[in-house]
Amino acid sequence: MKFVLSLIVLFLFGTSHSQTISISGQVQNENTAAFIPEAIVSANSKKVTTDSNGYFRIQISSPQVLQFEIRYTGFKTLTQKINIQKDTHLVFFIKSNL
């Protein structure tokens, strides 16, 4: 009985402390610093689109290295690996193709 109770406590403790990490940020034009709406932000298998202020948010379940890729028509694709260990705010600056 003690063994079963210990397993239940261990299970509850482990699941109640599961970590969700929030990554927020913005995408900006490198030359003008203007925020870029509707840019595509990919991080490993997750993909989101920036809002009208160039803002995005992604959540992950554990610390990890993410391969970010930022795409927007008329701009060079930016690829960057970042080690995410805790809630993080990022700002990506992308270059125009012109």
- Rg calculated over all Cα atoms: 19 Å
- Tell me about the biggest sheet? 4 strands, antiparallel
Structural class: alpha+beta
- Strand percentage: over 45%
Sum up the overall morphology in one term: elongated
H-E string: HEEEEEEE
- Give the low-confidence spans: 1-16
Task: Return the average pLDDT rounded to an integer.
Answer: 88
Give the N-terminus to C-terminus distance in angstroms.
71 Å
> Fraction of residues in helices?
10-25%
Number of helices: 1
Strand order of the largest sheet: 3-2-5-6
Number of strands: 7
Account of the 3D structure:
With 98 residues, the chain is α+β, with helices and mostly antiparallel strands. The protein has one helix and seven strands. The strands form two sheets. A four-stranded antiparallel beta sheet has the order 3-2-5-6, with no helix packed on it. The longest helix is centred in the first third of the chain and has 15 residues. The radius of gyration is 19 Å and the shape is elongated. The N terminus is likely disordered.
